[in-house]
Design a protein that fits this description.
2 copies of one chain form a homodimer. The first copy, chain A, is an all-alpha fold. The first copy, chain A, has 2 domains: 37-168, Orthogonal Bundle (Cytochrome Bc1 Complex, Chain D, domain 2), CATH 1.10.760.10; 176-303, Cytochrome c-like domain (Cytochrome Bc1 Complex, Chain D, domain 2), CATH 1.10.760. In chain A, 38% of the residues lie in helices and 2% in strands. The first copy, chain A, has 12 helices and 2 strands. A two-stranded antiparallel ribbon of chain A has the order 1-2. In chain A, helix 2 (37-47) crosses helix 7 and helix 4 (110-119) crosses helix 7 (156-168). Chain A binds chain B through residues 48-51, 55-57, 62, 65-69, 72-74, 78, 81-82, 84, 258-259, 261, 270-271, 273, 307-315, 317-318, 320, 324-325, 327-328, and chain B through 48-50, 55-57, 62, 65-69, 72-74, 78, 81-82, 84, 258-259, 261, 270-271, 273, 307-315, 317-318, 320, 324-325, 327-328.
């Protein structure tokens, strides 16, 4: 090919990509997060530190395991003293794009969310005062707070700020679907492409759109038909008290959905096929054929991006002044 | 300095180092492990995979946390259903140098040890058949077994071989004490050096010697005076049935001892000072002065080496054929 023709083709292909992108209801995820590096590095340690729990056994990573799609892959989580959690742990991956945090959106951002499980008696079962005492007893941590916040005073505000700053880095770019969005036609198969078309024409995209392919609105679970579950969660109702908000939940992100099983707020759908069929049924009034469902599932599996890649943090040790873990109660 | 004189001094200093090293009862730890890389990489994933437990929540790393000195820093561990473990979790760091595994030495090597907790109803509460079913249901794992073992047949022998191969890499070279052993005089302070002298002259070194500074013999806990504890562990007696083996335990390694609190098989000593005083008392019939104990503690803190440094592994997802975790019983 002559150089000039190649250049023209390149320019044309860039035009095509740009217009392709602009017309799609799903947008590629940014490749890098803008964060305060020192706070994020400190937050990574805190995220993995089980000393934020009463038992000294449960860390943020226990239920939002970064080796497993930022979830625990359980229907509902295991908390302090093996208590069964009330709801499925949502993934921490790409959670910086969420409209708010928790299924019911009761925390406005990652920082507010991070304080929740630490003090929840069914989760980490510590409290903010104790968490601050533990962390501030450890000189290497205090030194890091000093560097990251220009103040060596450890408080819950700084602890949760640091954790949130780390969580903002947990974005997963470069999924095959994002590559396709960027113009790399061969990044997805015809089957996957057909699944995406079906995803759009069936109406899934009405809620699952944007950068996170969801996570930007609250929607009723059971628009067309009621959703049957033993789970007691009432969704936004618990936050607003409004009858209309009963069973209204934050739409979950579909990014990395192959990794974040089981599905729904009750974790009752163990497979993607099951989840797609139930969603079609109760949200859209559709009965997908086996072939249709498998196309949509094929598309969904193109949404797995690059997983977080970092060195496992080494935590500074406790000392004689550190409050001791209390796993078995006193 | 003239080049020749510098050379002569270098040679002299090497001689000094070599002879220094040869005369010391503690030997530096190797800087690198010889392992099968593919098996070790696979083993790293398995080490972090909670699907080897019945609940899907507990992995090897839960109780031998590589962010925390290869321990859980609890008196005794938390097992399936929050059961309280019978004994303190020993560090996995440098465990390749142990004479045998577990406090009572009931497993001859790391491979045999790795199979224990998986099937122990008080620990991971799975069983070997189920573990094999889980892992072999995951195509990406099967592919890795094929590469690492030239056979895609997953069995417990290969699972535990891979985990052991990874654990062999968990050695911690380059502690300040090892640097001193290698001839770098300024690597430890006078106080720490004095502590080491006291450690030798007091007799600690009789059991805590060699590459792992312990871990090479079994000794009675309570040589001079009986050790008082509520803990029921009987040590080697449970393996041999010999009366003389009652309360005889594997001598723990002192490497990274600052990180592997609390101490002893019952985890009853929460500080190094407490541990040193009790050991002096019941093993050596000595009452260390406050100053002596603090010198020995200062020496012990020079034994912290480079901690494991690797990227947190990403685990391949389960699928519809993978047996489901069962955290809350059926």
């Amino acid at each position: 090919m002559k150089p000039q023709i190649a250049s023209i083709l390149t320019i044309l292909s860039l035009f095509t990509s740009a217009s392709l992108l602009a017309n799609e209801p799903i947008q590629p995820i940014p490749t890098k997060a803008e964060v305060n590096e020192l706070q994020s590095e400190l937050g990574k340690k805190l995220y993995f530190d089980p000393r934020l729990s009463k038992s000294g056994f449960i860390s943020c990573n226990s239920c939002h395991n970064l080796s497993m799609g930022g979830t625990d892959n359980l229907k509902t989580s295991i908390g302090h003293n093996w208590q069964q959690g009330p709801i499925n742990s949502p993934t921490v991956l790409n959670s910086t794009f969420n409209i708010a945090q928790f299924w019911d959106g009761r925390a406005k951002d990652l920082k507010e969310q991070a304080g929740g499980p630490i003090g929840n008696p069914k989760e980490m079962a510590s409290n903010h005062d104790l968490a601050v005492k533990v962390i501030s007893s450890i000189p290497a941590y205090v030194e890091e707070f000093k560097l990251a916040f220009s103040s060596s005073k450890v408080d819950i505000d700084k602890i949760t700020t640091a954790i949130a700053e780390f969580e903002k880095t947990l974005i997963t770019p470069n999924s095959r679907f994002d590559q396709w969005l960027a113009g790399k036609k061969e990044a997805i198969t015809l089957q996957e492409k057909a699944g995406y078309e079906l995803f759009k024409t069936s109406g899934c995209v009405a809620c699952h759109n944007g950068v996170a392919i969801g996570a930007s609105t609250y929607q009723k679970m059971g628009v067309i038909k009621p959703y049957k579950t033993e789970n007691n969660a009432k969704g936004r109702f618990s936050v607003t008290g409004k009858e209309a908000d009963k069973f209204v939940f934050k739409v979950p992100t579909l990014r990395n959905i192959e990794l974040t099983y089981p599905y729904f707020h009750d974790g009752n759908a163990s497979s993607l096929t099951e989840a797609v069929n139930i969603m079609g049924n109760i949200q859209l009034g559709k009965e997908f054929t086996k072939e249709e469902a498998s196309k949509i599932v094929a598309f969904l599996k193109t949404l797995t991006g690059d997983q977080p890649s970092f060195k496992m943090p080494i935590l500074p040790p406790s000392n004689n002044t550190t409050p001791k873990p209390d796993p078995f109660g006193k």
